[in-house]
Amino acid sequence: MLLNAILAAAVAMTAQASPAPQMPAPAAILKSTERVATWQLDHRNAFEHMPAASRSVRDPRDWQQATFWVALTELADRSRDPAYARAIVELGRAQRWRLGDKAFHADDQLIAQAWIWAAAHGAGSEAVVPAKAYFDAVLANPPVGDLVFRPNPSGHGDPICTQRWCWADALFMAPPTLLQFSRATRDPRYARFAHEEFRATTDYLYDRKDRLFFRDSRFFERRDAKGRKLFWSRGNGWVMAGLVRILDELPKTDPQRAYYVGLFRDMAARIVGLQKPDGFWAPSLLDDGKDTPPETSGTAFFTYAFAWGVDVGILDAQTYRPAAIRGWGALERSVQPDGMLGWVQQVSDRPDSVAASDTQFYGAGAYVLAGTALYDLSRHGAAR
C-alpha cells in the first residue's frame, strides 16, 4: 500500500509539471460516443474492417459483438435517442434471449448482461429465462479442472481449462454477468460462485510484483525481444473494465467489495504510469518505445476504468482524471471521419500489429464504455 501511495504521488507530481488537459463538455462527449455507436449499429453486417475476426463475429451472442451490445446498454441509459434501447430489445427478441452455445465458456455468457438490462427496460422476465437455465446448469455441475492453459487433448476445440476462467479476458465476460444476474434474481448463489472463481483466477494469473495480469499461463515465462514480460494491454483492459462492472454491482456494505477495490486500485496505480505521452497505452504494456503503434481497445478500457473510478470516489482525481482525459483525446483522434473507430487490435491473445483501418465490435464497445463513464464524470464535475 505504501508503494502504491508513492507511485500515485509521483504520477501526480508529473501531472502538475505539465498543463492539465481540459475536460470536454458532457454534450460533446455524448455526441462523440453516439457517433461511434451509430456507425457500429449501421455497419453491424460489414466485416471488411475486421481482418482477424473469427467467423463467430457474425453471431451477436458471441463475445466479439456482445461487448458492443453490453456497452450500448450504458449509452441507452444516457442518450435521448431511443434507437439504442430499441436495437437491444429487438436483437434480444430475434435471438430468443439465448446465451452462447458453449455450456461453461465465459465468452458465451457476456451477452446475458444485455438481456438482463432489457428485462428491466420493457422486455419483461422472459428475457432472462434462458440465462437462468444456463447458469443453474453451471451451478449444478461446476467445472473443477485446473487453470493451466494447454491444448485440448482431442486436438481440436477450446482448451479444457476454458470451462473455468483460465484467461484474463474471462474476468470481463462472466463475473459481472453473474453478479448482475444474482442481483436481478435476488439469489446469492450466483454471486458466491462468481467470487470464488474470480479469486481463483486472480491468484493464478495476477503478477503481484508487476501488478498486472498475464493473459493465461502460457505467458508466465514468455518475454519480448528485450527480455520484458508480456503483459497485454487489452487483456489487462478486460480485467480493469470487469472490475468496474463488478464494483458497480456491489453495495458498499458488501463484505466482498474491499477485495475488488484493493485490486482495482493496485492495478490502476501501475497502469496509470504506463500511459504514453500521446494518451495511448501500448499493445504490450511494458513496451515504452516511441514507435509503438496506437491501440484503442486497451486504451478505451483503461479510460473507462479511470473515469469511472474517479467519478465514484475510488480513484484520486488529481492523478487519474488527467489520464482519463488524455486517453479520451487519443481515442477521439482514432475515430475516422465517418465515425468508425480505428486502431483496434484484432482478435488475439497477445500484443500484435494494428492498423488505422482496423476496427471491431469490442473496440466500439470499449469506446462507448469510456465515453459514458467520462460523460458522467464531466457532468458531475460541472454540477459540483
Q: If you had to describe this structure to a student in words, what would you say it looks like?
A:
- With 384 residues, this protein is mostly helical.
- The protein has a single domain (26-383), classed as Glycosyltransferase, CATH 1.50.10.10.
- The chain is 53% helix and 1% strand.
- It is built from 14 helices and two strands; from the N terminus they run H-H-H-H-H-H-H-H-H-E-E-H-H-H-H-H.
- The chain has helices at residues 2-17, 26-42, 63-76, 83-94, 112-123, 129-140, 170-173, 175-185, 188-205, 233-247, 257-271, 296-311, 317-333, 361-383; strands at residues 206-207, 212-213.
- The chain has a two-stranded antiparallel ribbon.
- Helix 1 packs across helix 11, helix 3 packs antiparallel against helix 4 and helix 8 runs antiparallel to helix 9.
- The protein is globular.
- The two termini are 30 Å apart.
- The model is unreliable at 1-17 (pLDDT under 50).
Task: Provide a compact summary of the structure.
With 384 residues, this protein is mainly alpha-helical.
Shape: globular
In the predicted model, the low-confidence regions spanning at least 5 consecutive residues are: 1-17
- The SSE order reads HHHHHHHHHEEHHHHH
CATH class: Mainly Alpha
Number of self-contained structural domains: 1
Give the spatial strand order of the biggest sheet.
1-2
Keywords: Hydrolase, Signal
Protein name: Glycoside hydrolase family 88 protein
GO molecular function, one term: hydrolase activity
Signal peptide: 1-17
